[in-house]
Every structure is written in structure tokens, then in C-alpha cells.
Amino acid sequence: MIRNTAGAILFAATVAAAALTQATYLRAATKYDGAWSIVIVTKTGPCDRAYHFSGQITNGLIIYDGPGGPVDFVGRVKSSGAAFVRITSGSNYATGRGRLRVARGNGVWHGRGRNGYCTGTWSAART
Fold first, then answer.
1. Cβ partners under 8 Å of residue 114, min gap 6
2. 0.90 exceeded by the pTM?
3. What is the DSSP string of 81-114?
4. Please, which residues have CB within 8 angstroms of residue 109's CB and are 6 or more apart in sequence?
5. 70 and 84 in contact (C-beta within 8 Å)?
6. Each residue of 36-86: pLDDT tens digit?
7. Distances (CA, A) of 117 to 40, 70, 72, 85, 93
8. Whether domain 31-126 has CATH 2.40.128.600
9. Were both Cys, which of 37, 42, 77, 107 would link to 120 (CB 3.0–4.6 Å)?
10. How far is 82 from 64, CA to CA, in rounded Å?
11. Is residue 14 over pLDDT 90?
């Protein structure tokens, strides 16, 4: 009987730990999580006029998994909606900041490409 009771307590503790772990994971998700479509527009400089790509936000991390060769991509959205991203590839880089709301967002960016320094704006929409 004691062995069965100890087994039941161990089983209950394991289930409780699994439930708490799942609840912690769910709390870590943000209201910005999901798929997003982003349009980047160049306002000054010799960069291409506009870029369009898709991204994903998971637990507040901005994830880009698209083409473009070796790219170092770091992005984050705070619970307030403040967003920051930095992309580097060799000597080229771009930094963006702005604000997301639940379904849309916008901001500014600047960077240096192979042809020189550029600045612009970005806008995003949940897809």
C-alpha cells in the first residue's frame, strides 16, 4: 500500500510539474506572436526602393528564415510593443526600431549596404 501511495504521489507530482511547465510556456507567448508581413521602404540613400518579406514572432523573438545568404539576424518585441531588429551580413548591416500593435506596426531603419548608407521606414501587418 505504501509503495502504491508513493507511486501515486510521484505520478501526481510529475503531472503537476508538466502542467506548470506548459502553463509557463503559454505565459511566455506574447500577443504579437504569429506570422507577419513586412514592407521596408528606402527614403534616402542608394539602397533598393522597397523590400518585402515575411517573418514570425515566437515568444517575443522576431524570426527571419528566408533567403539572402549568410545573415545574422537578431530581433525582439517587448511586451509594450517596442520592437528592435539588427541584421548583419559581412560589412553590411541594418538596424530597425518601432512599435507593434496587435495587428499592425511601423518604425524606422538605417543601415549600410554595398552601395552606401540608407535610411527609411518599415510597416508590418499580421498575416
1. 92
2. no
3. SEEEEEEEETTEEEEEEEEE-SSEEEEEEEEEET
4. 40, 94, 95, 96, 97, 119, 120, 121, 122
5. no
6. 999 999 999 999 899 898 899 999 999 887 776 678 889 999 999 999 999
7. 15, 20, 19, 17, 10
8. no
9. 42
10. 18
11. no
Grid cell listed for 78: 517587448
Angstrom distance (rounded) from CA 51 to CA 81: 23
User: Which residue matches cell numbers 538596424?
Assistant: 95
Query: Which residue pairs, CB below 8 angstroms and at least 24 apart, start in 52-57?
Result: 54/127, 57/30, 57/32, 57/33
Per the CB < 8 A criterion, the answer to whether 65 and 71 are in contact is no
Query: In this structure, which long-range contacts are made by residues 36-39, counting pairs with CB atoms below 8 Å and at least 24 apart in sequence?
Result: 36/105, 36/124, 36/125, 36/126, 36/127, 37/124, 37/125, 37/126, 37/127, 38/122, 38/123, 38/124, 39/122, 39/123, 39/124
* Location of C-alpha cell 506574447: 30
Cell of 102: 496587435
